[in-house]
Design goal:
Helix content: 10-25%
Strand content: 25-35%
Strand order of the largest sheet: 5-4-3-2-1-14
Number of helices: 9
Largest sheet: 6 strands, mixed
Distance between the termini: 59 Å
Shape: globular
Order of helices and strands: EHEHHEEEHEEHEHEEEEEEHHH
Number of strands: 14
Bound molecules: 4-methylsulfanyl-2-ureido-butyric acid
Radius of gyration: 19 Å
Length: about 300
């Protein structure tokens, strides 16, 4: 049986603060129509796809904060996306801010299979930024204020003929993210990101270096775990803040096989042969043969670096 999936990376251009969920969903539907015309089986959208990247705003009013979150999924705004995707028999994945019935706030992504059912949920583990207003930064990145760290780990799911996992934005910079999924045999990792084009704490770190780090981490994660990775951005200038764009599909050798050329709504398409993950998993990254876990304990025993005494 062929295990070739045609995947669409549905990059979104800027989403302004005033833009409604309904308007963003219309843009997502336009990309879904393009995906249908290209015979895609799966479409991946960015992190926090339904709104502007609101953690750049410092807010204190809980009602205002909660207005950026979704209490149900699907809901009235996103139902057309679920229904159209199911009608087209296309799986989708997208990110949104999740407010649970118990009042917990997460930066979440879901995986929806071609029948329209949610098969997987992931809550962002590595939250970047800070939790209080920081006047020293050129702009704010308040994910630690608005979200709790994800509580679901890094699960993978058997769906769409493969083993699929998710992570979100900053997670892609951490090798642990890929390795935990790699140890579950992951064949395809889908992720969305919202990366500012400059470093708010280092003004000379601009788009060129940020794009280098973006690709470095995603390509390394793919290669070292012999998995496909589809990384999908928001791009362009959101409320005066430029976002990185640069969506890519990376093969299990770590090579880029499709990449966005604009900073706007754009669909990139690639055929992903899930069987192409097997060679690396059987040879250089045959974890069962080559990993030496007796030397890795420190990775889960401590968080910060502890240099040797002087
Ligand atoms: N959304 C997100 O996780 N963005 C981060 C920015 C890091 S700078 C605080 C990223 O890793 O791209």
């Amino acid at each position: 049986m062929s295990r070739i999936l045609r995947v669409g990376g549905a990059q979104l251009g800027p989403v302004q603060r005033a833009e409604s969920r309904q308007s963003v969903v219309r843009r997502m539907l336009n990309l879904l129509v393009q995906a249908k015309e290209n015979n895609c089986n799966l479409v991946v959208y960015p992190e926090l796809a339904l709104t502007t990247f609101f953690p750049r705003w410092y807010m204190t009013d809980p009602t205002e904060i909660d207005s950026w979150f979704e209490r149900d999924m699907p809901n009235a705004a996103t139902r057309p996306l679920f229904e159209t995707a199911a009608n087209y028999r296309i799986g989708i994945s997208f990110g949104y801010a999740e407010l649970t019935a118990e009042g917990h706030h997460f930066n979440t992504a879901i995986l929806v299979d071609p029948s329209g059912g949610i098969v997987g949920k992931y809550r962002k583990v590595h939250l970047p930024g800070h939790d209080e207003y920081d006047p020293a930064r050129a702009f704010q990145h308040l994910e630690k204020r608005y979200f709790e760290p994800g509580d679901l780990g890094f699960p993978v799911w058997r769906t769409m003929t493969g083993i699929v996992g998710m992570c979100i934005c900053n997670d892609r910079r951490w090798p642990e993210t890929y390795r935990v999924m790699g140890l579950q045999g992951v064949e395809l990792i889908v992720l969305g990101y919202n990366t500012p084009s400059t470093n708010s704490q280092k003004s000379d770190e601009g788009p060129k270096k940020r794009q280098f780090h973006n690709r470095l981490t995603v390509q390394a994660g793919a290669y070292q775990n012999s998995t496909w990775v589809v990384a999908v951005a928001k791009g362009g200038t959101e409320d005066g803040h430029h976002m990185l764009a640069g969506s890519v599909v990376v093969n299990p050798d770590g090579e880029i096989v499709a990449e966005a050329v604009t900073e706007d709504d754009e669909l990139i398409v690639a055929d992903i042969d899930l069987d192409a993950t097997a060679f690396g998993k059987k040879t250089i990254f045959d974890f069962a043969r080559h990993r030496r876990i007796e030397h890795y304990g420190i990775i889960t025993a401590q968080t910060g670096a502890v240099p040797p005494p002087e």
